[in-house]
Amino acid sequence: MRSGQRTQNWLYCTLVGVLGLYASTYQTLVDRLAAHFGLDTRMIGVLLSVYAIGSLCSVLISGMLSDSLGKRRVVLCAALLMCLGLLCVSSSSTPAPLFVGLFFTGMGAGPCESVSSALLTDENPGASTRWMNISQMLFGVGAIVAPLAATWYLSRPGADASSALLLCAGAVFLCWAALTATSRGRLRRPEGARRELNLFSVLKSREFRLYALLIFVYLCYESVGPTYLRQLFLERGASEGTANLAISLFWAAMVVLRLVGAFMDGKELVCVRILSPLIAVGSALALLAPSDGLRLAGAVLYGFGCGPVWPMLFVLASRVFPERSGAAYATMMLFSVAGDSFAPAVLGSGVNNVNVTFILCGALSLVVAAGAWYAARRYGRSS
Q1: Which of 74-83, 228-237, 241-250 has maximum average pLDDT?
Q2: Residue 198 carries which DSSP code?
Q3: 91: helix, coil or strand?
Q4: 129, 265 in Cβ contact below 8 A?
Q5: How many H helices and E strands in the chain?
Q6: pTM recorded for the entire structure
Q7: Domains and CATH numbers, the chain
Q8: pLDDT number for residue 22
Q9: Chain centroid to CA 83: how far?
């Protein structure tokens, strides 16, 4: 691999890591932002939704644009849009520009992740799984570091949520500047690019539809598990510190398995069908274990079960349409967002029972394992 290409790979992975840093920082600070603007508790959900809607809107068009105009162009524009959105948020003095800024931040963040992932796949055909897992590992590292960094930063005199988000804008801008500097001569329109593209044409493939369904199901238990893990521990009489430790162990376990997954090129479906049932084991241990120590082991197994599944399903989907990886990644991201939005409302708030929620999460993980087994038998992409 040329040194220039390796540098670009690491820069795209770093950008994804910064997205994890921002996402976790925003989740940590959203209540402070609401209080600063005099918004009540109900509006916190609206603040989260505005960002998600912006991301969803951009994902719908970024896949088509990246396949027709070029992925590097789309990533650079998206990163700049995210910077401008964060600047708008951090400089807001009334709620209106805050909502506008969050919408544009989401519009920039969506393509930054999905199109960067597609680029890593396109540029590294023999090592796509490795680079996808590295990028998602860095996303997890950013998500782990952000709450700790935010807590430290906000303890300093004069620090507030707006200035913390301004620092996030600075980190995104540095990635944009580095990518711009190293992309000279690479911002060409793809050869044979189609001017009229239908994002959902990739869904005509049965194999692709299977991976899209699996990523939807996976996001159902990946999004709900960490959210309700803390509640489960508190209901079992654990301390606040132990409940928070469970969340940290979940993320740490996921990061470790994504690092391991970086060396599993060609064994994606094997990993998915072996690791996914660990969710069921971890859920059972967390629910039934008589001690906090064993429940913490369940949290670790839950993290192991999530591990590299997300990036591996994306890589598998992109291999169905190698010439249209932008549309493939955008469609997969759309199903991811759908699962991420559906699960908290139905499996979480809708069920309103943490025990039933984890039983359902365990059952869904077995569905993903069965789907991976079927894909290996039916399509033979990895044994």
Answers
A1: 74-83
A2: -
A3: coil
A4: yes
A5: 14, 0
A6: 0.76
A7: 3-182 (1.20.1250.20), 201-379 (1.20.1250.20)
A8: 86
A9: 19
